[in-house]
Specification:
The longest helix has 15 residues. The chain is built from eight helices and 13 strands. Helix 6 crosses helix 8. It has 266 residues and is an alpha/beta fold. A five-stranded mixed beta sheet has the order 3-2-1-12-13, with helices on one face.
């Protein structure tokens, strides 16, 4: 059995199919870990969602900001943004089945020494705490309270974690860290306006994974979201968003030996 982690797909179904063939993925034997943002901006989010759902337990995906945006837009279509390519899903006869599948996916997954998240973790969160916080929000997203939370999900405040946070603000910080984080202050204050490469990070901020004393550093964290960072591998870190949507490539890594597979994307 092999476990292949794959970077942000964003509706690039054809490239996903080609990469799966390239790595020799066998759904009866192997696992796929997806870093989230499986939908939007690319042309084929609908067939990609269908393909992933059909793969059943062979796929583990965490939710990205674009995936949560789809769930929000499904409740209020007027919230679509310029550049969104979600309408085919909203018009599909199996829309509800696909959306319910998406709502049941995780924000954070931990297995052995590896952890999977779309964007990142705040410096003070241990792996155990992050898992508990993710499960708290997963219960909201997959439950009856999601429509109310969805109305309050967007926003940049609060921009740091406090143990006393409650309700929508508490859940928003968890979602923002796990699906939108790129850089933060050493103390964990998040900056959501910055999307560039690490060489141009504003003063007072640094990549979330370089925060001094980061409490999650004992696990190897697999993530995406930051296409300007690109492929970035350290002993305890694997970043996999290599910009397939933007003409870069789609990247997979076999976790057992860290062998890389790249599919150039037009």
């Amino acid at each position: 059995m092999a476990t292949f982690a794959i970077g942000d797909l964003q509706g690039c179904h054809r490239q996903f199919q080609q990469l799966v063939e390239l790595i020799g993925f066998n759904p009866g034997r192997d696992k796929l870990w997806l870093v989230g943002d499986i939908v939007n901006r690319g042309p084929d989010s609908l067939p990609l969602l269908r393909s992933l759902m059909q793969l059943g337990e062979a796929v583990i995906t965490v939710l990205g900001n674009h995936d949560l945006h789809l769930l929000r837009v499904a409740l209020e279509p007027s919230r679509q943004c310029p550049g969104d390519t979600l309408q085919p899903i909203l018009d599909a006869p199996d829309k509800q089945v696909l959306l319910e599948w998406l709502r049941r996916q995780r924000l954070f997954h931990v297995e052995d020494e590896y952890a999977l998240v779309h964007a990142g973790l705040l410096p003070g969160w241990t792996i155990e705490q992050a898992l508990e916080l993710a499960q708290e929000v997963e219960a909201v997203i997959g439950g009856d309270r999601f429509p109310d939370f969805a109305q309050n999900m967007y926003g940049n405040q609060p921009d740091c974690w406090q143990d006393g946070l409650q309700g929508y603000e508490r859940w928003r910080v968890i979602v923002n860290a796990m699906t939108r984080l790129r850089v933060c202050s050493p103390a964990g204050k998040m900056n959501f306006s910055y999307k560039g490469d690490p060489a141009t990070i504003p003063a007072g901020f640094l990549p979330w994974f370089d925060a001094p004393g980061r409490a999650s550093r004992d696990a190897t964290i697999v993530f995406g979201h930051w296409s300007a960072l690109g492929l970035h591998m350290q002993r305890n870190l694997i970043a996999l968003d290599t910009g397939c949507l933007w003409g870069g490539c789609l990247t997979a890594v076999r976790l057992e030996d860290r062998k890389l597979f790249h599919l150039p994307c037009a």
